[in-house]
Amino acid sequence: MTSTTTFPRAARWAALPVLLSGTFMVVLDFFIVNVALPSMQLDLHASDGALEWVAAGYALTSAVFLLTAGRLGDRIGRRRAFSLGLGLFTASSAACGAASGPEMLIVARLLQGVAGALLMTNVLSIIGVLYDGEDRTRAMTAYGLSLGLAAVGGQLIGGVLVQADIAGLGWRSCFLINVPIGVVALVLAPRLVGESRLARAGGLDLAGSLLLTAGLTAILLPLVEGRQHGWPAWTWISLALGPALLALFVLHQRRLAGRGGSPLLELSLFSQRAFTAGLITQFAFWCGQASFFLVLALYLQQGRGLSALDAGLVFTILAAAYMAASMVAPVLAQRHGRKLLAEGALILAAGHGLLLLAVSDVGTGGSVAALVPGLLLIGAGMGFVIAPLATIIMSAASPEYAGAASGVLSTMQNVGNALGVAIIGVVYFGAVSSGLATAFQLSLGTLAVILIAVSALTRLLPAPARTA
């Protein structure tokens, strides 16, 4: 059972902007750094590997702490956990902005990831208990829209901040912008967001958290560090240990549940086909999102020599197409269900294909206009997939397990982001010696293959119910 304070309908909707401000900041910080990476590298004398850690490390700590964060919210109160995440995210953002070297920046980003986990999973949990029926669909649509806007708009916001160079802060303002937003949200949260918790929440599974952290780190670490060190023996050993540690994590979860304990994974969730199939699709889809924005930003700035602002403006092409598709996606999803997801993924893959052809023609020169058709298709494809996919997954979970379900959903998103950055990083940075255009083309080809697989995976989702 979920215990929650009852709020009037109008008051529940007043809570949504506060919740979505947290979501927006967390997702924004996946992407706002992309156009700032070249400036960071010069200012902090950072290596390519350090740049990957700035992106992937944030996603990694988000991923490994999300399940624990969901349980923590069930136990101490979801609003309280959300507020705790807001406070930590605001403080770690300030630390990122004050970083004196790449090591300090990476550590602060890891802390940001932990805070982001507390925010993201409890936002979904609170939405799950505050809204039901059509209200939940509207709230999830708003959630998906804010998530996508942060992703596609992050580059433009970052470009504006870097170019404006407010008070000489340069790239640091990309992190410091979170501070005033976080402070305002912290003040409003106890006034507008109702408290809820699981009436009989279990204990925190620390052993499970350690196994999950070790397993994901064992996979991510060699993917980020292996190429620049010549793939020594430890990288292959680590890659082999990763799946074994994750298998031990699953076994531990089953044993803990069998003893009547409180595992990180609520195994009963996986009895729902839509939930399980949706998670697999979620993971595969997000493997291609953060990684694409990373290599596109590097191609535009290091390859074509665009400023941070000009590169950010190119991303507005994506943002416009994303917004247009997102506005019609809820209606189309009600009519077509999983078919919309399949077609959206194929539109995304086609966009990568068009972009690949354009880059093969113009290289690192020529007009940016050649990139527009591909970018438009990519933005539209994102709009057709992001919100409907999240809605399908969350609608398959009982409100009683809102914390566990949202934690698993967000974990798959962040694991996908982290591993996607690491894998595409291997492809891109491994091919840079052949030219930035070639490296970008190889990355685009790999991403297109991933999205074709996503389209195929959507067939595992349930078909929409027929209406008379």
What do these coordinates show?
The protein is mainly α. It folds into two domains: 7-190 and 264-460, MFS general substrate transporter like domains (Growth Hormone, Chain: A); 206-263. 78% of the residues lie in helices and 1% in strands. It is built from 17 helices and two strands. The chain has helices spanning 9-31, 37-44, 48-76, 78-97, 102-130, 133-164, 173-176, 178-192, 206-225, 233-258, 273-286, 290-303, 308-336, 338-362, 372-395, 402-431, 436-457; strands spanning 2-4, 196-198. Strands 1-2 form a two-stranded antiparallel sheet. The radius of gyration is 21 Å and the shape is globular.
Terminal CA distance reads: 35 Å
Protein structure class: mainly alpha
CATH superfamily of the largest domain: MFS general substrate transporter like domains
What level of helicity do the residues show? over 70%
In total, how many beta strands?
2
Q: Number of helical runs?
A: 17
Question: How would you briefly describe this protein structure?
Answer:
With 468 residues, the chain is mostly helical. The protein is built from 17 helices and two strands.
List the SSEs and their pairings.
Elements: E1 2-4, H1 9-31, H2 37-44, H3 48-76, H4 78-97, H5 102-130, H6 133-164, H7 173-176, H8 178-192, E2 196-198, H9 206-225, H10 233-258, H11 273-286, H12 290-303, H13 308-336, H14 338-362, H15 372-395, H16 402-431, H17 436-457
Helix pairs in contact: 1-5, 1-6, 1-8, 3-4, 3-5, 3-9, 3-16, 4-5, 4-8, 5-16, 6-13, 6-15, 9-10, 9-16, 11-15, 11-16, 11-17, 12-16, 12-17, 13-14, 13-15, 14-15, 14-17, 16-17
